[in-house]
Records
---
Amino acid sequence: MDQESGWEELRKEARKIEGDLDVKLSSYAKLGARVTQGGFADPDTPSMGSNRSWKSMEMEIQSLLEKLLDVNDSMSRCAASAAPTTSVTQKLARHRDILHEFSQEFRRIKGNISAMTEHAELLSSVRDDISEYKASGSPRMQILRERAAIHGSIAHMDDVITQAQTTRAALGSQRAMFGDVQGKVKQLSDKFPIVRGLIGSIRRKKSRDTLILSAVIAACTLFLIIYWLSK
């Protein structure tokens, strides 16, 4: 009976936290929609009729999610200590699903707000740079252009270095592969004298062909020189 009453108390607490989270996430979603539409992007701007900032709302939602997780864990332990029924298992699974849905929704809205805030800060920085340029004249713009060119050159150099390192690794791999092939051929020639003799014959024939080709080229060159001198 104590376990059953404990389970009901935990369920009551879980439903209360879920209700609070539903309200907070609804307000947080409206705030996120305002930020996405460009309503404001200041982290200290008060949220929908509340005196708290949206950062405070994030902390409150995060705290409620942690509390709901603790309550769900307590419910799991309470259900495990008693003979679990199908009804209890289904209810516990439903509470876990609700926690998962709330967590996903919170992360999605928080990501949208963070992205839009960063975008607004970037635009504000660009506006400040433009204002400074208008106030100080062309030297400021020249410095900005030179800085952008330097950053572009550094990025290009990084790309070239990366490609060179990749090429070097590929050449090293090929050299290792060729060395392995040569080693295997040498082992094969050492084990089989006939193969070694055949390799030697190929080398001698190659040397003889090279000498013949060299003699022909030399004779042709000499003939051309004599013909040119006799004209």
---
Amino acid sequence: MYQLGVMHYDGLGTKEDPETGVEYMEKILYSDSPKARHLKFAAAYNLGRAYYEGCGVKQSTKEAERLWLIAADHGNPKASVKAQSTLGMLYSVSVLKDLKKAFFWHSEACGNGNLESQGALGVMYFYGQGICQNTKAALECLREAAERGNIYAQGHLVEYYYSRKFYSTAAAAAKRITENDDIDMLAKMTDCLPTYVAKGVAMAAFYLARCLQLGLGVHQDQAAAKKYYSKV
């Protein structure tokens, strides 16, 4: 039933029918069957996504929040780690903005292995968002997330290296990031939101352009700088 719900909601192998997808997910979430127990967290996450996007149901950020909290289950590693990370994002940018809650949920998700939340935590530590500023903790999170493929974390490291005048390091890292600008593919590979992947690539392109324009850490090249500025 869960697979049918996903197929109908996303139009995988069948005509896209989000209303039917939502019905399947609700049946799983509110089922008393022991067979449905291990699928409840995933169903709650997907229902939250439907309410947040207003797809198959009337849009409601509050209902999305309620369902994602069920799915996240207080940080339970066996629950929906995706919901935990999504709550971190929700409390960072939406009308429900609460940076302390955002930090809590990103911490829970990161502790459960979520790559996107690890990068987000690094940024929050770096700028003191929802937590006291801690550059050491920020760099630990950002470097580990960057090594695991988080483009947003990689972009912030480029900015850090540039600001500390480690120009050759910044330029080399930025060049590696900008070699692949297929945002959708990178998002799928890393299971990170395309919006934040795009931000990471744009940051890298900007600082590489600056280095090329001013001849910082690389040979000055105005034509190449113009090319990278166009990617920002």
---
Amino acid sequence: MNNLYFYVGVVGNIISVLMFLSPVKTFLRIYKKGSTEEFESLPYICTLLNSSLWTYYGITKPDSYLVATVNGFGVVVEIVYISMFLIYAPPRTRAKTATIAGIVDVVVFAVAVFVTQFAMEGEMRINVIGFMGAALNVVMYASPLSAMKLVWTTKSVEYMPFLLSLFLFLNGGVWTLYAFLVQDWFLGVPNGTGFVLGFAQLVLYSIYNKSSPSKVISDDLDSGWQHRHLLPPSTSDDTQQV
């Protein structure tokens, strides 16, 4: 059983690394154009906090090094993404991004570490960290839900990349299995949610992958969906959570 959960965790790490790296194409575009255009940084700021919490959880809970390593990698990657955004964003957007990142990724995380380290101990500390990570994970699944609503409305999968849906499905499934093997429901609930949403996206993709949006819907998209996000499922042109 120990060997099985280790191998499942390794596979989960590989898939998660691929998901963390999936926005690279978007950032290459930003680098080449020297501008963040209409891309938004908030999804990456939230992902950095999420990865930081899960890294802290993996370090705090015994025998959870597989959770810590992949999310530690995620922390490094998200810092690079946010740094690039700060370099190439317009001054006002840069200031806004720096402020939000400072509050969310520095202050909130520091408070979480301080409170759990000095006001809690043992299982209580682990449970609170796990609950915070799981809650943030579930909230972040609002992005896939918005993408699915858009596909349903437009009858087109243009704004829901197949590979992202596939990785969401695989990542959620593997980490849900891992959570079951190690009896960790803080990992199981959010990743089980991701697995179900990933499956639902694949079903939608199979239904609408050969459809094209109507002219009315296309006009609406042209006028109302100009704010592209860095983290697809939030309807990115180019790309892209344990």
